[in-house]
TrEMBL record:
Residue ranges the record marks as coiled coil: none
InterPro entries assigned to the protein according to its UniProt record, in alphabetical order: CheY-like_superfamily (IPR011006), Homeodomain-like_sf (IPR009057), HTH_AraC (IPR018060), HTH_AraC-typ_CS (IPR018062), Sig_transdc_resp-reg_receiver (IPR001789), Tscrpt_reg_AraC-type_HTH (IPR020449)
Keywords assigned: DNA-binding, Phosphoprotein, Transcription, Transcription regulation
Protein's name in the database: Helix-turn-helix domain-containing protein
Gene Ontology biological process terms, A to Z: phosphorelay signal transduction system
PANTHER family with a match to the protein in the record: ARAC-FAMILY TRANSCRIPTIONAL REGULATOR, HTH-TYPE TRANSCRIPTIONAL ACTIVATOR RHAS
Domain of life: Bacteria
Lineage: Bacteria, Bacillati, Bacillota, Bacilli, Bacillales
Keyword Phosphoprotein: yes
Start and end residues of each HTH araC/xylS-type domain: 237-335
Annotated Response regulatory domain residues: 5-122
Gene source species: Paenibacillus whitsoniae
Length: 338
């Protein structure tokens, strides 16, 4: 089985950690890539990284789980949502079903029930493989756009559009995918020039769709010299410097993008190009490097180290530490004779 990336959105810290442990106990192919306490932060991560499965509580601050499920359903993203709730209320179940959610797990969460829901979700993902591959192409395009020369943008967009039209999917699904590509390009152009008039993709014939993308390419060629200006890249460097100094404070992806005065999409692309990592992975790696330094002091407890570098959950800290170093914090200390 290929890697299954799971996002957990749950505002109760101990439940969030418990669910994460349950997920990764199911098998090595399951990876918890993000743990957040509200739907808004989960959506920010989804827009950047497109996970396989989202496990979300219903009642959360800022944006709840039903709002999150609605965003995924409205955008028709090839992501499976699993609702976890302590409210045995059929009204919630009915609302969840409206968004195409068939997995509804009640609290307290039973490990076997969650595992069964995850297995069924993986089976459903198999039916979305073509769509997920196209989403991956769009992601790849967005990530490589900062590196593309003016003449290469045409070829890259044509490739994604051609592959999208080859898909054997309903027309409305194809339209959503083409919209996603258009939105990525528009966001990037707007990030270069805040005065750029965003041009959404209108439903139309294949020829009209291709003309729309030709217009976006023309705008890219026009704005490229401004993009090449060093001040845009300097903005990313300043964000990195701020994170290096304030690594224990949690900044959401939109907050980091705002620091750079860039759109989320543009910031994500430039950040990955500049650092080689997604924003979340950069922050995690930074924190783990700081944690290694803190672990050298034998009198400091591991949970104190986790809190000092910005992890609200000890189990999550342990998992990320092992993912990045291959050992647990305790094993790391033993290897150093601490």
């Amino acid at each position: 089985m290929s890697k299954v990336e799971v996002v957990i959105a749950e505002d109760e810290l101990w439940i969030r950690s418990m669910i994460g442990e349950m997920v990764e106990k199911l098998g090595p192919e399951f990876h918890v890539v993000c743990e957040v306490g509200n739907g808004e932060d989960a959506w920010s991560y989804i827009e950047e990284s497109w996970p396989s499965i989202v496990i979300t509580d219903i009642m959360m601050p800022r944006k709840n789980g039903l709002w999150l499920a609605e965003q995924i359903a409205t955008q028709e993203l090839p992501i499976i949502s699993i609702i976890v709730s302590g409210y045995d209320n059929f009204q919630y179940a009915k609302q969840a079903m409206r968004f195409g959610i068939s997995e509804y797990v009640l609290k307290p969460v039973n490990e076997e029930e969650l595992h069964d829901a995850l297995r069924r979700s993986v089976q459903r993902l198999a039916g979305l493989s073509d769509t997920r591959q196209t989403i991956a192409r769009i992601q790849k395009f967005a990530e490589t756009l900062p590196d593309l020369a003016q003449t290469e943008v045409q070829q890259a967009i044509d490739h994604v559009v051609n592959e999208t039209y080859r898909l054997k999917v309903p027309g409305h699904v194809r339209s959503k995918l083409l919209n996603a590509l258009s939105n990525q390009m528009n966001a990037f152009l707007h990030g270069i020039d805040s005065g750029y008039p965003v041009r959404p993709l209108e439903a139309g014939t294949e020829a009209e769709v291709r003309r729309h993308f030709q217009g976006l390419i023309a705008s890219w060629i026009d704005l490229y010299p401004k993009y090449a200006n060093q001040h845009v890249r300097m903005a990313i460097r300043k964000v990195c410097e701020h994170l290096d100094e304030h690594y224990a404070k949690t900044y959401s992806l939109p907050e980091a993008a705002e620091m750079a005065h860039l759109s989320v999409s543009h910031f994500s692309s430039l950040f990955k190009k500049s650092t080689g990592l997604t924003y979340l992975n950069y922050v995690n790696q930074l924190r783990i490097e700081k944690a290694k330094e803190e672990l050298l002091a034998p009198e400091v407890k591991i949970y104190e180290v986790a809190a000092a570098v910005g992890f609200a959950s000890l189990p999550y800290f342990n998992r990320i530490f092992k993912q990045l170093t291959g050992v647990t914090p305790q094993e790391y200390r033993k290897r150093l004779g601490i």
